[in-house]
Design goal:
Length: 116
């Protein structure tokens, strides 16, 4: 898919899920506003189309075509989610737990709310 001003926000997200971060950064609604074209979404915010279009195209060019899971067997998708995203989440949760413990130990006596 070639991303243009007339591409719907929904189609952009379906085709290039990594574009979500770009859309969020520019405040473009890809959920309820997904049926709007990119041009319509930008005009509603009275913002220029060129910066978001350039970033979306750049993001699309950096995307790996092997990451298109729409036609993949469900078992492969599940394995990918568990081994990629769940592993990342577990690592981040461990870090958050460690940092939370440090905050409680350092500030828990003076800020009782952090213990909760």
């Amino acid at each position: 898919m070639t991303i243009t001003a007339e591409s719907t926000v929904r189609d952009i997200v379906v085709e290039t899920p990594t574009a979500i971060s770009v859309l969020e950064r520019f405040g473009i609604d890809y959920c309820c506003g997904g049926s709007h074209t990119l041009a319509e979404a930008r005009s509603k915010r009275a913002q220029s189309l060129a910066p978001v279009l350039n970033e979306l195209i750049l993001q699309q060019n950096q995307s790996n075509p092997e990451d298109d899971w729409r036609g993949a067997p469900l078992r492969d998708l599940i394995n990918h989610i568990v081994h990629t995203h769940h592993a990342f989440a577990r690592t981040q949760l461990d870090l958050i737990n460690e940092l939370t413990t440090k905050v409680v130990l350092r500030h828990g006596n003076t800020h009782l709310e952090v213990r909760q």
